[in-house]
Amino acid sequence: MNGIGFIKGMLLTLRHFVESYVDDVRYGFKKYSPNVDNFQQRQGTQAAGVFTVQYPDEKVAMPERFRFVPFLVVEDYDHPERPGKDWCTSCGICAKVCPPQCIWIVRSNDPATGRPVPEPEAFFIDIDICMNCGFCAEYCPFDAIKMDHDYELASYDRTTSHIFDKDKLSKEFKYWKTIAPNRAIDEAQARGGWEHKDAQKAARRGGGAADSKREEVRARKEEEQKQPVASAPVAQETKPAAAETPAPAAATSGGGEKPWTDSEEERERRKQAALARKAARASKRE
Amino acid sequence: MVDMTVPNSPATSIEDAIADLKAKFPDAVSDDKREGYSGVIVSKDKLLEVARYIHDTLGFDYLSSATAVDYLGEGNHSNDHLEMVYHAYRTTGGKALVFKAQTDREKAELPSLVSVWKGADFQEREAWDLFGIRFQGHPNLKRILMWEGFHGFPMRKDWHEAYYEQDHKPFDSRWPSGHVYRAEERNIFGKNVKYPADIDLSKLTDISESSMYEGFGMGVEYTQVRDGEGMATDQLIVNMGPHHPSTHGVFRMIMRLDGETVTHLEPVMGYLHRNHEKIGERNTFLQNIPFTDRLDYISSMGNNHGYVLAVEQLLALAPKYTPPTYRTEVLRVLMVELTRIVNHLWAIGFWLNDLGAFFTPVLYFIQERERILDFFEAVAGSRMMCNYMRFGGVFADLPERIRTVANLMNDRVRDFNTMQFLTEMINERIPRTIDELDEYLTNSDIVRVRSEGVGYLSREDAINYSAAGPLLRGSGVAYDIRRAEPYSIYDELDFDVAVQYEGDMYARYLVRLQEMRESVRILKQILPRLEYTAGESVASPFAYSGKVPIGEAYGRVENGKGELGYYVVSAGDKKAAANPWRYHVRAPSFINLTPLGVMAKGGKVADLVAILGSIDIVLGETDR
Ligand code: SF4
Ligand code: SF4
User: What is the CATH number of the domain that holds B518?
Assistant: First the structure.
């Protein structure tokens, strides 16, 4: 022991110190300027020296598979047929597979017959409990729930704002196509087209004849919604459905039916509601 | 370097050992005939004797795991009982000798095996704490994860946690009429805790603190204490932690000091205890995978691996079973070896922190870690909570490109070819960092002066205390599960087991350094395998509601911190169950603390911090 090892170590520290300025010089002391396109280089395998990301002035964009809390896919708000329509069929698989059990789904029932309708009446995710595991997205058979990339969810209040309801969770299908373009393509291929499985099925069947029963249910619900009902913890009387797990695909069977045919006004109403939601979200973001 | 060849001649096989055991103790030892179970059942009055024979004569010198199971109301097992399950190994390699002892639930008592394997110490305390099995002859039978005075034994099947909802997930309240509520809202006391009027708080006694100081000789007259030279001296009892920056989390040590010298030390843990195992029993088999991420949160890939291996052992009992494809295994090894490098970079870096080199070395090392985590993020979706492995598969194959997509304000985009990124990382960056680390520290006078000869653990102690990982190999025991009982594709990979003989902190450092080099060596063999298996399926055949055949399994892997084992029991009236009956984690961070007292004794307080750092613990795993 003669101090040589120690001196060598200090030289290494010195080298690191010098290296941390190399980039600064190379980019004319504008290393972090948004006008300099060097992020790829700075963060790559050939990078040397300091590679700190200056959050929040710059952020590392997320890879496609990145998972934060989930969101619900809804049809694009300018979709010609089904604007803002939930992709979720309330099959309940995500709620069953969720490890910390933070997904709560109220399935819609036809008020007259008590038979389930493939659409969630309410959908909640307690994002405090969500462990960001991605199982819900992985096992959803309808590509209706996806993991979001927006990780900036910190807020001052824990108890009131962290149970996300359907409004807060819903995002356009378009959005998924922007944040995960490749995955969206793969999934569409597996589904057999860009549209939701049910919509495709309907298209294959030729559509045309309005699904009278579904229309009926819709109308009745409309009636009910005239009196605003708080969706949250209202204890509802739910008749235990006779069929245990109504496979949503089976529920739409009946031959030659189109799973969704909205009236003009209904479509318009949905679209407006959806746009309002979007605007509200956008303004909150400011 | 020692290349370990496993002498598995028939004379030393497990079957022979069991036959020998049964011949020697015909009345006390019988085969475990339950479906899907293995090993022997030992009658409890002969347990100590049999254990001693297993250790001394049969040569099973390493007690890997000792844990309890509560068979309450489990139809297939005739009567309700508690059962201790022991997995003993030979440090020369080979399979486990599994032996079990059963006891009544009401009067749960078993002889303690601490006198045979000291490694049973904490594990028996845990079984006492969580299951209420009283171990006769245990030198220090106190609660270990819960506090003294806690009511009940939480891992028993009839114990229900706060906000208990149902025995098994999925909970019925979530679907189809999932009207959301917060569990806290169900607190019957509302926001304030109100005590019933007839309870006088001043009369409640809290023994949790005072009981910890038992055995420390508190209140002993100083005149009665002699130091080494026979001089009357005062002794000081010092608490370090739980909120101490150098304890790597909420960990506490109580020590008795003679001047600067530690004369007695006891670790106190459980501040991060969340009864991971009880949660695991409520969960379905699948749901446990993301929970394992949270054990040793530095190496979540390794945690996933151990668990899926255990469950795959059970799945293999089914008449129809598709083993993971070769590519799946290749991907798994790729991930866990990268994880090992991450773990060791972290461990060495923070150990340097403990030695007083505040954060400069760590930052140099975790730069490399960042690259690896970028890769994990692109492949698995998360940097640390990877949740990557599935039963019989993995979450997804490597993406073609590590591409990011701008979404938030100020997002900056990167786009790399995955294989190129990986190749550059494995062939250039990581070896370069390891060499740099070597140059920086190995011959640094300060590191050597501080660490050579400090925190000594002898070879015999290391084995007997069930130390694992670099702690064991730094004491001259060339025991690495990847070689001793190969899993996955390790038997076809070429690497050496890193071993050092000095048994001090410096030896552990060298083991870690060497192990990173060996990992790079493995990774270099993985790269061509990745190329030629491209396109093979890696999908898991396990459905979201999949069931696992009944039986027991112990899956263990060599994780960065040591042997990580999962003891999983699937039980039920049917052929298969959706939820584990028992889910136990043999946590290296927990068991490696057993010899902490021995290592610290006689050392200085300042070294204690570094000794703890050289064990390398993560409290998420210690406390579970
Ligand atoms: S799994 Fe998909 S379709 Fe089923 S309830 Fe969940 S989000 Fe809806
Ligand atoms: S990400 Fe995981 S924890 Fe979160 S809602 Fe989905 S399944 Fe549940």
Answer: 1.10.645.10
Of B410, B416, B444, the CB nearest to A56: B410
| Residue of B405, B413, B544 lying closest to A139 (CB–CB) | B544
Specify which residues A163 forms β-bridges with: A126
What one-letter code names the amino acid at B289? I
Picking from B136, B154, B186, the residue at the C-terminal end of a domain is B136
Final residue belonging to a domain, choices B86, B115, B136: B136
**B563: domain range?**
276-405+413-623
Judged on CB neighbours under 10 Å (0-12, 13-18, 19+), B352 is buried
Provide ipTM, 2 decimals.
Answer: 0.83
B39 sits in the region (left: phi over 0; alpha: psi -120 to 50; else beta) called left
Atom of ligand 1 nearest to the CA of A97: 1
Q: How far apart are CA A202 and CA A249, in angstroms?
A: 11
Q: Give the domain CATH number at B94.
A: 3.30.460.80
Instruction: Look at chain B and report how many structural domains it folds into.
Output: 2
**Cβ–Cβ < 8 Å for B146, B270:** yes
CATH numbers and ranges of domains, chain A:
1-61 (no CATH), 70-204 (3.30.70.3270)
Q: Is A99 in the pocket of ligand 2 (CB under 6 A)?
A: yes
Give the CA count within 13 Å in the CB-facing half-sphere of B423.
10
Asked if residue B306 belongs to a domain, the reply is yes
Look at A122 and B360 and tell me if their CB atoms are within 8 Å. no
CB atoms within 10 A of CB B9: 8
Report mean pLDDT in 10-residue bins for chain B, 624 residues: 43 79 85 84 88 87 90 72 90 87 88 90 91 89 86 87 84 84 72 70 77 71 65 78 77 85 87 90 91 90 92 87 89 93 91 84 86 90 90 88 77 82 89 88 85 87 90 90 89 89 90 92 91 85 85 90 91 80 91 89 86 88 88
Which residues on chain B are in Cβ contact (under 8 Å) with A241?
176
Are B179 and A122 in contact (CB < 8 Å)? yes
User: Would you call B40 helix, strand, or coil by DSSP?
Assistant: strand
The answer to whether the CB of A143 falls within 8 A of the CB of A88 is no
Find out whether the beta carbon of A236 lies less than 6 Å from any atom of ligand 2: no
- Flag whether B594 is in a domain: yes
Nearest alpha carbon, ligand 1 atom 8: A88
Structure tokens at A233: 């913890």
Q: Which of A135, A150, A153 to mutate to test the pocket of ligand 2 (most atoms within 8 A of CB)?
A: A135
- Flag whether B550 is in a domain: yes
Task: Count CB atoms within 10 A of the CB of residue B265.
Answer: 22
Cβ-Cβ contacts under 8 Å, A98 against chain B:
170, 174, 287
